[in-house]
Amino acid sequence: MVVLIVALAAAASGAYRNDCRAAAAADADMERALGDATLVPYAQTAVEARARQRCCVFCQSEYAKAPHELVRVVPACGHFFHAACDADRWIRTRRTCPLCRGALWPRTRTIGVGAAVVVAVP
């Protein structure tokens, strides 16, 4: 009986640690998605992405052709939004792309010890 209780407590503790690790990883992904690396001039976004996404989903304004206009790019899907719009608040609260609701970063799979492969998940 005591062994069963100890085993259940150990399993619950391991699940709690895994939940904490997952939450910490999600927080790290969100902070990276809001970092300077995801702010780029509109002119540097991919040409095919610009053709598909002509206006910001937040303010509904077309993107300017000015080379200095900054947009926030979601790394996993490539969608972007005016840096001055409220994309950061959306990302902080929902932790997804405001347009497609996908993940902020491509998922990774660990293969062996210390190796990771980025796998794009639609």
Question: Could you explain how this protein is built, in words?
Answer:
- By secondary structure, the chain is α+β, with helices and mostly antiparallel strands.
- It has one domain: Herpes Virus-1, CATH 3.30.40.
- 38% of the residues lie in helices and 15% in strands.
- A three-stranded antiparallel sheet has the order 1-2-3, with no helix packed on it.
- A hairpin with a 6-residue loop joins strand 2 and strand 3.
- The longest helix is centred in the first third of the chain and has 32 residues.
- The termini are far apart.
- The C terminus is likely disordered.
Structure keywords:
single chain; 122 residues; alpha+beta; Herpes Virus-1; disordered C terminus
Describe how the helices and strands are arranged:
Elements: H1 2-33, E1 39-41, H2 47-52, E2 70-73, E3 80-82, H3 87-94, E4 107-110, E5 116-119
Antiparallel strand pairs: 1-2, 2-3, 4-5
Look at the helices and sheets and give the structural class.
alpha+beta
The gyration radius over C-alpha positions equals: 19 Å
How many structural domains can be distinguished in the coordinates?
1
Helix content: 25-40%
H and E order: HEHEEHEE
* Mean residue pLDDT: 74
Within CATH, the superfamily carries the name: Zinc/RING finger domain, C3HC4 (zinc finger)
Per DSSP, the total helix count is 3
Principal-axes shape call? elongated
Number of strands: 5
> How far do the termini sit from each other?
47 Å
Question: What can be said about this structure in brief?
Answer:
By secondary structure, the chain is α+β, with helices and mostly antiparallel strands. It has helices at residues 2-33, 47-52, 87-94; strands at residues 39-41, 70-73, 80-82, 107-110, 116-119. The strands form 2 sheets. It has a 3-stranded antiparallel beta sheet with strand order 1-2-3, with no helix packed on it. Strands 4-5 form a two-stranded antiparallel ribbon.
